[in-house]
């Protein structure tokens, strides 16, 4: 498998869902992490594009991830709706 190039993160209060794909679009990362583990998990990834829904906490996370060498794109909630698979399953809604 190739290295992960794009990661979608579903932000929440305590548990975060990560979904990463390689250059060919194959799933290479599907993980749920606690708040304390998020920066550590993202730091272990090669520099990649990270997409998140824009919310009150996303700007802080974006700054942290950019310091680690990642490119971060925040999407307005209205543009995130088509990517959402379900309402109650954060792990699935992180998929891009």
Topology of helices and strands:
Elements: E1 4-10, E2 15-22, E3 27-34, H1 35-43, E4 49-53, H2 58-67, E5 71-75, H3 77-80, H4 90-93
Parallel strand pairs: 1-4, 4-5
Antiparallel strand pairs: 1-2, 2-3
Q: What's the quick description here?
A:
With 96 residues, the chain is of the alpha/beta class. The chain has one domain (4-93): 2-Layer Sandwich (Nucleotidyltransferase, domain 5).
Q: Can you walk me through this structure?
A:
- Strand 2 (15-22) and strand 3 form a beta hairpin.
- This protein has 96 residues and is of the alpha/beta class.
- The protein has helices at residues 35-43, 58-67, 77-80, 90-93; strands at residues 4-10, 15-22, 27-34, 49-53, 71-75.
- It has one domain: YqgF/RNase H-like domain (Nucleotidyltransferase, domain 5, 2-Layer Sandwich), CATH 3.30.420.140.
- It has a 5-stranded mixed beta sheet with strand order 3-2-1-4-5.
- It contains 4 helices and 5 strands.
- The mean pLDDT is 87.
- The two termini are 19 Å apart.
- The CATH homology group name: YqgF/RNase H-like domain
Side-by-side strand order of the widest sheet = 3-2-1-4-5
The count of β-strands is: 5
Query: What's the rounded overall pLDDT mean?
Result: 87
Number of domains: 1
Number of helices, counting only DSSP H or I runs of 4 residues or more: 4
The main sheet comes to: 5 strands, mixed
- State the helicity in percent bands: 25-40%
Instruction: Give me the CATH architecture, please.
Output: 2-Layer Sandwich
Shape: globular
Q: State the end-to-end CA separation.
A: 19 Å
Indicate the radius of gyration in whole angstroms.
12 Å
Classify the beta-strand content into a percent band.
25-35%
CATH class: Alpha Beta
Contiguous low-pLDDT stretches (5 residues minimum) are none
CATH third-tier fold name: Nucleotidyltransferase, domain 5
């Amino acid at each position: 498998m190739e290295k992960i190039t794009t990661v979608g993160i579903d932000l929440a209060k305590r548990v975060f869902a990560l979904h990463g794909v390689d250059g060919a679009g194959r799933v290479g990362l599907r993980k749920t992490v606690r708040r304390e583990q998020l920066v550590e998990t993202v730091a272990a990834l090669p520099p990649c594009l990270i997409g998140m829904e824009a919310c009150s906490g996303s700007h802080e996370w974006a700054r942290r991830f950019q310091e680690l060498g990642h490119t971060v794109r925040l999407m307005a909630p209205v543009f995130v709706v088509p990517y959402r698979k379900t309402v109650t399953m954060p792990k699935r809604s992180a998929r891009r």
